[in-house]
Amino acid sequence: MTSASQQIMRLGFGFAVSQALRVIIELGVPDLLAAGERSVDELAAATQSEADALYRVMRLLAPEGVFREVGPRHFELTELGAALRSNQSGPRDFVRMINSEPYLAFEQLLYSARTGKPAFDKVFGSPRFEWLSEHPEQAALFQRAMVAMSQGSNEAVAEAYDFGPFTRVVDLGGGHGQLLSAILARNPHLGGVLFDLPSGVAAARQGDGGNLPRTEFIGGDFFESVPSADVYVIKKVVHDWDDERAALILRNCRKAMQPNGKVLVAETLVPPGDEPNLIKGIDVVMLAITGGLERTEVQYASLFNAAGLQLERVIETKGPISILEASPA
């Protein structure tokens, strides 16, 4: 039986598993194992690694279900590990992204806990999104990671809401355009607007998120103003910001929206209770990296009120994301 002390120590070593995942992705080990089991010596030669060191990294990940050691120093890829292959549009880019500059910033989580301010700003000297705008390679990786994280949720949002009454939908902070593409494909009567910073608009124009017919591409800053429309979709954007900045985004929607318009905030709600949930981990990452937060339904209702809106209903989807529908108060 594992003691309390041993359990705590295992939790403390979580960083080792996270970085080990990044290492085997960067080395391309999952791809090398796609055809079947191989020895560590073969893998080390193929990846220009030191065999004993590589073995120790893979041995750490085997109990986590990423690999299976089928013989002494011989490994095969599991179904879980196969999600890290380069031909999969899965979580590999997210693992690479979160274990780079966010990982370095997270070492200063104590600073965030004491001040409520993002550690990223302290470590890198500028806010996360400002820093990304000055580092195009990391910004491109961030966009790919967001595509990976959005798998399934864009379709879930597009399917769960009836856009029939509307004519013009604005995807605020739409980035690669995956969500807007899914909405327009299901609603041929709709015209779309992809509104984001210039780097995000560029990704959408290139078709990174799919086909975008009937779409106007507008670069801008949603803290200043937003285009006019009768429905706004804001997916996984509000959680990036503290209450003051988040309310400003929503308030700008309230100012620009057509009569009887709607604001749809698509986010994962923090559930009550002590059950494990990925969103609770993401919430602490938001604290340290962007200064944002994941919220409960009550917190979102309060945020809408501060922006001159009222929460009408919460629509569940087939994915781990909900649609919070708000209208003018």
Protein architecture, described:
It is a single chain. The chain is α/β, with parallel strands linked by helices and 329 residues long. It folds into three domains: 4-82, Arc Repressor Mutant, subunit A, CATH 1.10.10.10; 92-147, no CATH class; 150-271 and 286-328, Vaccinia Virus protein VP39 (Rossmann fold, 3-Layer(aba) Sandwich). 48% of the residues lie in helices and 18% in strands. A seven-stranded mixed β-sheet has the order 6-5-4-7-8-10-9, with helices on both faces. A three-stranded antiparallel β-sheet has the order 1-3-2. Helix 14 (178-186) links the parallel strand 4 (168-172) and strand 5. Helix 2 (14-27) packs across helix 5 (51-61), helix 4 crosses helix 5 and helix 13 packs parallel to helix 14 (178-186). It starts with a helix and ends with a strand.
Q: How would you sum up the global shape?
A: globular
Q: Could you name the CATH homologous superfamily of the largest domain?
A: Vaccinia Virus protein VP39
What is the count of helical runs?
18
In whole angstroms, how far apart are the ends? Answer: 56 Å
Helix fraction, binned, reads 40-55%
N-to-C order of helices and strands: HHHEHHEEHHHHHHHHEHEHEEHEHHEE
* Assembly state of the chains shown: single chain
- The CATH class of the largest domain is Alpha Beta
Strand line-up of the largest beta sheet: 6-5-4-7-8-10-9
Rg from Cα: 22 Å
What is the fold-level CATH name, i.e. the topology of the largest domain?
Rossmann fold
